[in-house]
Structure formats: C-alpha cells, structure tokens
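Entry 14. Ran structure prediction on the chain below.
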Amino acid sequence: MIGSLHPLDLLIIVGYLASVLYIGKRAAKGTTSEDGFFLAGRKLGKLYQFFLNFGNATEPQGAVSTASFVFQQGAPGSWLSFQTVFMNPYFWFMNVWFRRVRLTTLSDLFEARFNSRGLSMFYALFQILVACVFLGFGNVTAYKIASSLVVKPEAAWTPAERASVDGYHELRTLERQVKAGTLTVTQQTRLDILRDQSARGELHSYITLLGDVVFYLGFSIVIGTYIVMGGMSAAAVNEGLQSILIIVFSLLLIPTGLHAIGGWHALGEKVPARMFDLFGARGSDQFSVIALGAILLVSIVQNAGLSHNMGICGSAKNEFAARSGVSGNYLKRLMIILWAFAGLIAVALFGVDGLADPDATWGALSNKLLGPGLIGLMLAGVLAGTMSTLAAKALAISSLFVRNVYRQIWPDISQKQGVFYARCTIVVVLALGAISACLMGSFFSVVQLVLTVNIPFGAAVLTIFFWRRVNAPAVWACVILSTICILAIPVLAVKVPALRTNPGLVTVAADPSGKPVSVYFASVVHESPDDLGSRLVGTGRFNFECWLLDHMGFNVVALTPNQRFTATFFFDGIFPFVVLIVVSLITPRTDPKRVAEFYGIMKTPVGATPELESAAIAETRRDPGRFDHTKLLPRSNWEFCKWDRVDTVGFIVCSALSGVIVMLFIGVLKWAAP
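Output, structure tokens:
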C-alpha cells in the first residue's frame, strides 16, 4: 500500500490514465488542420456541447472548494459556486453570440471590431496570466485531494512534523476553551502564538508522503500528452468521461458519510443550526444576500472574457447546439447541492474547525469514508475532471497564440505548422500552470483571484457585444487601469516590505464574534511568531479596493468582514465599465462602416449548410443594416435585440429551472436542519 491507497485503487488510477492517453491517440487522426485541432471542425452536436459545458463548468475545483467553504461557514459558503444557478439564462443568450460572430478565438473579436492587431495580441498575452491562475488552481485541487490520501504513517514523522500536528490539536482545544470562557492568561498568549502559526500555514492535521512539485510535474505531463495528440476532439471525449466520473464520486460520499455519522437525523444533531440557513450568513461570514449579488456580478463579467468561450460555442455545428450546452450547466448546479452536503457531513464527522487545512475537506472525507477501490475511483474522477478542465483552457490559449501571435508575426506558416506551434504552446502553458500552483495560498484567496483575474477583458467583451460607441482607446484604458487596481497592486503589494509592514495598512478590527481580523490584508501575523510584541506584517492579498474606498470617505474599518468582501467585489465589477464608458465618450468613434458590418454579421443567423452560411454572410456584407429592425432601441447605440420565440421560451425555462433548483436546495437544507 502507498499511504491510504490500496493496490486496487492504484489499478483504477493507472487504468484511467491509460484510457486518457488512448483517447488522445485516437483523436489525433482528425487534428491535422487548425479547425480540426481547435474547434473539432465545428461539427460538435448537442450531446458533445452538453458534455463540454457540463465538464467545463463541473470541475473538481468546484467540488473541493464548495465542500471547503461549507465546512468553514455552513450552507452560505456554497454561494461562491451556487450563484452560477442564476447565470443559466445569461448563457442561453450569450452562447448564441459567441457562435454568431463566427470567430475562432476571442482575440479575433478585438481585431474584427476595432481593426486593432495590438489589442488582439495583448488579449492573447494577457490570457497567459489567466491561464496560470486557472491551471494553478486545478493543480492545487488535485494535489489537495491526492495528498490527503497518501498520508505518512505517524511512526515515520520527524520531530518538526509531530510538533506541527500537536500544535494543530492544541489550537483546536484552546479555541474550544475560548468559546467556553475558561481560558487563562497564559493560555491566551499560547493561543495567539498558535493562531499566528496557523496563519503562516505551519500547523497540519496530517502529514503527506506526496511532494507537490513532483505531483504537479507528473500531472501536467499526462494532460499535455493527451491534449497535444488529440486537440478539441480529445477534450470533448474526455469531458464526457469525466462527466460520468464526477457524478459518481459526488454520489459516493453522501450515503457513506450519512451512515458514518448515524443517519440523516444525526446531521441536524451534530451540525449547528445556523449552518443550514442558506441566506442567514452572520456578519463574520463572507457570504450574505448582498454579497451574493456582488459575486454574481463579477462572475458574469469575468465569464464573458474567458478564452474557451469561443472554442466551446464556436465548435457547435449550429446555434441550437451551442445553446444546448446550457443543459450541461444545470446538472452542475445539482452537483453543487451534493458538494455542499459533503461539507456539512464533514462538520458532523470532524467538528466545527476540526481540520487544520479546510481546503483538504474533500480528501479528508474520502480518506475516512471510502474503502479500497472506491478511493481509487474517486481520485480517478478528480483527476479526470481536473485534466479535462485544464486541457480545455490550455487548448484555448494555444489557439489564441497560433492565430493572434504566431500568425501575426509569421503569416505564411502552414496549417500543419500552426498545429505544431499550438502543441508547443500547450506544453509551455501547462508548465507555467504547474509553477503558479507552487505559489498559491488558500482556496478562498485563489477563488477570489479566479473570479476577478479576467474582469478587465470580460467587461470589454460584454461592452463590445452590446454598445456601438465603445472604442479601442477605452478598452486599452479599461484593461490597464483595471489590471493595476484589481490584480497587480492586490497581488504584488505583499512583496513590498514597506507596504506589508506599514502601520496604517496592517490594521486589525474585531469581527462580530470578537475575533481579530485584518482589514486591508488577507491576514496579519507577528513578524516573530514567538514574540507577540514584534511588529505586525500583512500576508496574502492586499485589498486595494478597500483602501481606495476608505480614501473616498467610506469607513471600511467599521464594516464587517462580509461588508468589506462585498464592497471589494462591487468595486471590481463596476470600475471597468465606468472606465469604458467615460473614455469612449471623450474619444473618437470607431469607423462606422466597420462597426455596422460587425453587428450585422453578429445578428445573422448561422446557416444550416456551408452554402447557406456563405450566402447569408455575403448578403449581410452588402446590407449590414438588414437586421436593424430587430434592435430593441432602433435609433440608439445599444445592440440589445428583441426576443423571438426561442429566446422567450428559453429564458422562461432557464429561469424556472434555476428557481426549482434553488427551492430544492432550500427544502433539503430545511429537512436536514434540527
């Protein structure tokens, strides 16, 4: 045995990896052209679109992070994932626009709309940053679960490892005494020291045998091998495979977990009642109803700019196939309910704050509940889901670089050469993702980064689709200023000693429960962990948004953690649009003829055959305004269109299904609550 892995588990995992490589080899036959490699020849029907959307939306990062957040904060912690239930009507419309623009990459969008090769290339380069974040997160997710299953035997612990685990258990004991009000002065001092160590990541509830660097390297090699061989076709098939596995491993933990805690009724007895209230977040929690609105706003904005949108929707053979992908998203929303209950079961099993690393909640559950074979199946599911998600993102990035960087510099490269350079790009991007994984912190900080990293271009894409007045200078200003305020300063400030030790920035306030929390940094620790008199040092993300709001007259120190979190997300979601609108109105318009042709093509329905498609586009080029009668505001610069029967019915159905899923979640929570 290797840690908690039985030979049967290893056999299942090896079998899955072999299957993935075989899929890549089989799919390689149709990847000699760029359309075949990037878009599967634009021939993917409703079933493939279902799996692509479900698989892309239902990544293990969602399962693992949801279970972790719910373990920490109860049902409201699921909103970081579950808010996407309200986005399905949005996808019903947006998937069509991504298909109708008839482009291969999102970089193409900026050249088609503004004739700006610079913006097109910059978007492609910017996506390296986005890819590093997403790929790094995927690597960390897989590692968190795998590492918790390959545990080092206690007899082999080093003195430092034993001290780390003992310190974790001591911290849990002292935290319980705080709640009971039985803490002595000496114990309080010890508690403060242990809290400092915990914030530094020095305390652990288990010791793993699995090295993170070795894991990231091996994981990336497997992903790179099958996607380099098979392209989008391999990704689509593997999405289907992982979709089945992700359902299986999501279902595994619930009945086994309930049996372990004593049945369904025991869940309500062992989990605090407040943790079952989906809309009842306390002031110290990160998620409230208003916070939900802020999260939904940034999710919609950043989603619009994701590079894989054009690959997934553009690969659909027609508009309805592109729209059919929405059904795959609904299955994910149901999965989120299962993931949330996995987090509640973990609370019942381990107790509130019962894990030193809440990010390992899913892995800890698997290790405790599943037997030989089942652990292997679950781990294979995690690997499958993470691989397919990372592969889709790596493929999208490679498409961007071939079309919008390589071909801009060397326009005469052949289709075969284009595919070769795409494969090389995939290797580089996966390597960068592995490196970024080594630099990442907690799930919450990474999820916050994932939700905001693509906002600068997401805001630009949304505005391009619906407002004629937007121009290239406005997009440049939006991307540069938003990147500085939302990404660069928040991430890099902690690297500047003068900032992370500035007395005005390491401010600490008490949350509603009386626990000290940092205002501007993710956390604040003492420079010397054993000296509570040493100066304070900020760690993690610097909330530059809160600092700006404070200097605009808002008293952010007096806000609760939930309110500061909400204010940060609203700022991130609104600021880019303010820049886009202001700069567009004070700078010259884009060439009206180019603008009219762009929106004319975007409103032209996709033809049922290549011949009909060519004829429809030719007609639109002759008469770009032939669909202007469909505009909701005919004589304005806004390109919102009147709904047809398909739009209306689809919106009603999507909204109704979203409402049913929310009510189902609430009903099950009430049923489980004491």
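The two ends are 41 Å apart (CA to CA). Will compare against last week's run tomorrow.
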